[in-house]
Amino acid sequence: MADLNHILKTHGLRTTAIRREVMQYFLNEGKAVSHQDVEGAMPKADRVTLYRTLAALEESGIIHQVIDDDTVKKYALCGTECSGDHHHDNHVHFKCERCNDTVCLEDIKIPHINLPQGYSVDSGNLLLMGTCKSCA
Ligand SMILES: [Zn+2]
Ligand SMILES: [Zn+2]
Ligand SMILES: [Zn+2]
């Protein structure tokens, strides 16, 4: 069980009930979730507070944006190496076309790609689509 207070503290965030609750939700889900998903799971929480909570967690390197083929923004928990200064989420994301879940494949790094001269990469994302292990 991850120590949520410790994670918040090492990322320079004060512990609040809502931050803990949102992080716990991410941990329980274990997949990329949207703002709407978080809202749906916490109907009593104030919308603006939830929005700010997600923004603070992203800015602090606790969650990262997951870009899949859905139009809604999704987020997932970061590995321990992310900080407020820099996200290091250079892993592959996998979207299952059967259950529609998108997950982080933390151990599968995005391969280095040789670009033409003059181009430099700041960030990237790689989405693979197919069938996940629960649906296989
Ligand atoms: Zn990150
Ligand atoms: Zn699936
Ligand atoms: Zn990810």
UniProtKB/TrEMBL annotation:
Zn(2+) binds at C96, C99, C132, C135. GO terms for biological process: negative regulation of DNA-templated transcription; regulation of secondary metabolite biosynthetic process. Gene3D superfamilies: Winged helix-like DNA-binding domain superfamily/Winged helix DNA-binding domain (1.10.10.10). It holds the Pfam family FUR. Transmembrane segments: none annotated. Its cofactor is Mn(2+); Fe(2+); Zn(2+). Keywords: Iron, Metal-binding, Zinc. Fe cation binds at H86. Binds 1 Mn(2+) or Fe(2+) ion per subunit. Binds 1 zinc ion per subunit. This is Transcriptional repressor. GO terms for molecular function: DNA-binding transcription factor activity; transcription cis-regulatory region binding; zinc ion binding.
